[in-house]
Records
---
Amino acid sequence: MVSEICITHAELPPDRSVTGADTLASVPDAIPTAAQSRPLPEPGDVLPITRWGTPVMHHELKDVTQFDADLEKLVRDMVATMHAARGVGLAANQVGVDLKVFVFDCPDEHDQRVTGVVCNPVLTLPEGKDRQLEDADEGCLSLPGAFIGCARPDRSQVTGFDHTGTPVEFEGTGLLARCLQHETDHLFGMVFGDRVPERARKKLYKQHNELADHYPDDWPVSPTTDAE
């Protein structure tokens, strides 16, 4: 089980320069790509994003056991959906699928772009004197429009397999550290709202409810409406 959180994974609020997990402004194509980055498959179809409260968002998902054409299609659709929502990460249950796989496209502490696909992730976090927490705004594509501070270790490592069954390993620093934690949490049925105090959680829902009308039920298949 993950000891600390996607990033996740929506649009950057107009008055914020930093957000967290999977609700971040999309990564500009022009920034340098890190050596550890692994190519994402070509985007497929954009799917509706599943919201908090849907059962698949709140239980541990099934392990990936078949690395086949169906998995590749799912991953391609997840990539398309992540980019359409301007996110930096997306887990399978965020498109309603009960499988332990996430995709990401996120900068690290050096502002280098890191992309990848991770199935059946194992997350490792610093312990003891090496464990340093960073409290930063975090949001989730499955609760669009809402952001709140969430303290997480400033480094993380995840191992697993890509969608072809090839072993992968990623070292997370900066925003990527938060993203890897957030997305792995999703696969174990945890949303970042579970990691903040009740008062903060209520504030999250209030923020979301104030903007909910701007996010169609099938978002990002249908775009957001003007929030002005």
Note: Helices lie at 69-84, 175-187, 198-211.
---
Amino acid sequence: MTQSLKSQSSFTDEEIQSAVEQGPITNQYLSDPQKISSSLNRLRSMEITSYLQYKQHGYMAVSLLAPGLKTEFESHAKQELEHADRLATRIQQLGGVPIFDLQEIAGKAAAIGVRPEQGTTLKEMVIENLLLERRQVEAFTALIREIGEKDLITREILLDILGETETHASELADFLKRSSDTR
């Protein structure tokens, strides 16, 4: 196949080999793929930790006071897992390896101040989730600024996830505002 491709184009053997080895990483990619993969694994760890926290809160949020909260927690958990999957896909595209070791995931998340919390009341659970979402907003914003124009695809993925994360934070804050108004 390489012989027929080579005879039909002006690509050298070195260019073909480089394309195979580097995949989407071209000379126009201005960042360090290994560094970006490492940063994405940290963010992915946050997303997985968030997923676990939302799932736990979803199991615990059985309440007549806020019947929609359990559904909201479950919906947010699903989105957190989707974020983690999108980050894993990008890590792989950059030639990295998404981490799956639970201790490493917990360690990376804890290193940036993210630990699953388990409040005893619905209000505490919502506050914990809000604080976790705000930490994610900060972490995603920092990496987006660091990347700038050097990795456009990763930046686009992060901006999309950031938008959803800010929506989560807004929804949680709104719930807390509404619940304090009714007391």
Note: The chain has seven helices and no strands.
